[in-house]
Amino acid sequence: MKVYGITGGIGSGKTTICKVFETLNVPIFYADLVGREILKEESIIEQIQLLFGKEIIFNGAIDRAKLAQIVFNDKEKLTVLNSIIHPEVAKLFEEWRLSQNANYGLKEAAILFESGSNKHLDGVVYISAPENIRIQRVVDRDKVSIQSVRDRISNQWPEEQKLALANYRVLNDNKLALTPQILKLHKELTK
Ligand code: ATP
Which residues have any ligand 1 atom within 6 Å of their CB? Predict the structure, then answer.
């Protein structure tokens, strides 16, 4: 089965758009969700505790907010954390891919180009939306400050750099209708 990546900046609407593809019976691998689930595995908890100390555990589980805060400010620790999580996500992705029976599937991930995983996919769909709209969506959804969203955006690659590498684009700017864009893309990807 062909698998296309689907990515975009924070608040671009990746999950929202994937839910529409789901209604078209397109299988979706939610890489970020799988990454979060992996943090519940005993062997992963042990490895993370070894690296970050027992302060990283809260009520027997990884304190994800604390973990995110640490790696946000420490690139070396982020690299080590990724080396623990990525192989596990990659293994589950391969299992998922082999178990599907569809014309194509989508792999949703916030970080695709940055990690180089686009190279193992059949193409990438980029969801774009103006930065001010993306910020407002995340502020409304997560009840966080504008500055905290800006900080997360500044840690991602610039929009133009990712768009230049993408094969397909969906504009989710609250103006251009989404459904016709998705149906057109679905037709193209089904070929
Ligand atoms: P993140 O990078 O944080 O995971 P995301 O790219 O997956 O975000 P979504 O969670 O799909 O983005 O969308 C962000 C918020 O904006 C959600 O609350 C969603 O309901 C809303 N949203 C996205 N697209 C639209 C739209 N076209 N019309 C109305 N609301 C939208």
Answer: 8, 10-16, 110, 137-138, 141, 172, 174, 178
Is 74 in a helix, a strand, or coil? coil
Contacting residues for 57 by C-beta, under 8 A, at least 6 apart:
45, 49, 63
The pLDDT, as a whole number, for residue 2 is: 97
Ligand 1 atom with the smallest distance to the CA of 16 is: 11
Alpha-carbon distance 20 to 71, whole Å? 32
Give me 83's structure tokens: 């080396």
Residue nearest to ligand 1 atom 24, measured at CA: 13
β-partners of residue 127 are 8, 170
Ligand 1: which residue has its CA nearest to atom 23? Answer: 13
Evaluate if residue 27 carries a pLDDT over 90. Answer: yes
pTM as predicted: 0.92
Q: Domain residues of the chain, as ranges? A: 2-190
Dihedral sign of CA atoms 55, 56, 58, 60 in order: negative
What is the topology classification, in CATH, of domain 2-190? Rossmann fold (3.40.50)
Instruction: Say how many residues make up the chain.
Output: 191
pLDDT in tens, 139-165: 999 999 999 999 999 988 999 999 999
Could you identify the atom of ligand 1 that is nearest to the CA of residue 10? 2
